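I'd like us to work through together how a protein chain folds, taking it slowly. To get us started, please write out a protein record for me. Go ahead whenever you are ready, and we will take it from there:
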Amino acid sequence: MWLRITPESAFTTYSGIVRNPLSGMALFTASPGVAEEDWQSIAKALKAKDDDAQILFWTPEEDLKTALETITERCQLAFTGVPNETRKSLPNGITYFERVLPGPDRMYPDTDSAPISVTDEQIEAARKLLPIDLAERLDQLSAWNAPKDTYTYILRNNLMPVIESMAAEFSVSPAYIVKLYAHVLKSVQGRDPLPFGHDRIADMFRYMQKRKLAFDILPDLVRFLYKNPNMIFSSILAAVGYKQCDPQEIHDQIPILHQMFLKLKRKGKRRETAETDWIMGRLRKPALGNIPLAELRKTVDSFIQKEASHA
């Protein structure tokens, strides 16, 4: 027996009649029966032979193609075996499809819920929210010339976005901020870090820029800020010993300290950087926050070299 299916009729979900000419019985019906003479008219219109079955279904025109495809698929499944599905029985003895049996088709996705379409725009928007790949972050740290011993702390605490933001806003080297976090802040946090908002360090940067302070004092400020996160910045400056000083007053101390060093009797005086290191050690405290230490060191070196050329 084979089935001849025609789209000439109409269909509402699973509403139709199947006639098996071999038994003369309706195999499936969800509607009033069709008289024999009507079946004969249908068979004649379809040019059906004596051993052909006819299927009559009805549906709105926009569902006709889908209905025909579904019925064709169900007919083909009949030749391979009983479909793996759960069917609901009706009082008249017939059944209809209810859901597929548990398995990948049922669990993923949920067949009892309407499908949710996902657009390309939604996928692209979600992709932009993904974190940057770890390998890319490692390359970025390397490009910044950040010390390798800072990598783990920075990545574990997801500080890369914070560092990028601060470096851009304050025009500071990313490597400097990396060391501020992974060396200075880490050293005071210990094994049981206290709750600490990164916005406080950013606020500290803004305060220093407003006061036009040199960033060399930041490590001392961060150590104190971590233990006293609610203290105002002016009080923190006073607590770490900062006193505002004119840079020229600091420069005026260099000749005096040079003469003092020449009179010293101590081991290591002949080391190439001995005098510079000694003078910087005495100028560091008044210079912190008032003048960049690297700039001050260049001034000291220049003075010492000039004095040596005149000797």
User: Anything to note?
Assistant: The longest strand covers residues 52-57.
